[in-house]
Amino acid sequence: MTKPMPVRGESFKPMTASTSQVTADVPAPASSTRRSSVVWVDEFRPRDIPAPEDYEDIDDVVARHETDNERRRYLEEARIALATREQDRFTGLAALRLRKGWSQKRLADEVGTSQPHIARLEVGHEDILMSTARRLATALGTSIEEINTALLSRGAPK
Predict the structure, then answer these.
(1) Model-level pTM?
(2) CB neighbours of 1 closer than 8 A, spacing ≥ 6?
(3) Model confidence over 62-100: pLDDT tens digits?
(4) Cα–Cα 20 to 30 A to 17, which of 1, 73, 100, 123?
(5) Together in a domain, 119 and 92
């Protein structure tokens, strides 16, 4: 048995349409009765595929592991090793965060913002307020100049 995967802040679009709503390149059924048929809306959207009943969101799994001190330490060590091993791949704010062994969620908690906000800053999809830059510098134990340099390089993985 499967159930739809929850998507925060979005409602599912109906995936059925009467045959009169189907585009011209889709042949109509041979019978003249109108019945509902499944059609693709706009384009394929993975969020419309039902998730298995035992599905766990990766963010929930990581959050659960972060509550256990030993597992959190392993995750932090893995992030530090990743930042060290892949120096050319991670630059900018992501590199500063990974060098501390922190997840985006942990940095967001330290700064007083949300994980999605940190993600948008890391890839350059959002400008930063000076107050946020100061909080980032304090949390990451670095200077405001280094935060500025990090944000200019927009360190998403390459």
Answers:
(1) 0.61
(2) 53
(3) 888 888 999 999 999 999 998 888 888 888 899 999 999
(4) 1
(5) yes
